[in-house]
Amino acid sequence: xxxxVDWEEVSGPLERRAEAYAPLTERIIEQVRAVQPxxxxxxxxxSGPGVIACALAEAFPKAEVxxxxxxxALLDLTARRAGHAGVGDRVRTHRAELPGGLAEVGEADVxxxxxxxxHLGDQGAALAEFARRLAPGGVLVLxxxxxxxxxxxxxIGIGRPGLQARIDAADAARFDAMRTSLPGAKxxxxxxxxxxxxxxxxxxxxxxHLLDLPAPVSDTVRAHVADVFGRQGGGPRExxxxxxxxxxxxxxxxDDAAGIDQRPDVFLLATQTVHVGRRDT
Length: 281
What we know:
Radius of gyration: 19 Å
Strand order of the largest sheet: 3-2-1-4-5-7-6
Number of strands: 7
Structural class: alpha/beta
CATH superfamily: Vaccinia Virus protein VP39
Number of domains: 1
CATH topology: Rossmann fold
Strand content: 15-25%
């Protein structure tokens, strides 16, 4: 995994995002259930703070769920969350770097790879390794792709209209820089279905799920939106022009009536594309 990110620092934003996206996760789990109704072992590869691992344990009460991550603090969060959710007896944690560390876990009926693959330099080789760790008939669930999320109207009444489009462009540049800096980085055409097939998987299915949470949103969603505009909780962004930076600072000010904490028009509209492939033998 890419080691330049301080995963402990971003654990709060990661938890809030996963909680905000819970309705979408439920639909993805139902997509998985249709192809693998009773898995015995599920591996959440790159599990972060364990929100998804616990959701998987709750959805599949007969399954052991193994949360695999390279950061012990995130695994500790996972263990605590699992205990509070009443699934601590079926969620275990395993500290390892991906993808090689899965060899110590054993074969899995489901490997859930949620927004983690793009942190690995050679994505094609990583997918082949994940595919080898599936039991016969097992499925790899890859979450990559979709459309940029939207949280506010195009014209928010402060600053120049179109702020989110400019943030999207800055995010794309930052993502490209992250990808090229990874050890062993290899450019790939992001045809995820083709990459799953090249990894030896069959019955590849791609589906995009919609998350539509109109205003007014919950406090959890509002906090997630603030994380996004503060680049995962780190304060006003530095990769925007001064006018946009000033606008973001106002959005993050809890005492500003135009800020995210007080605005009545905050919403969450997002999509997530999911690719599922099966190991036949």
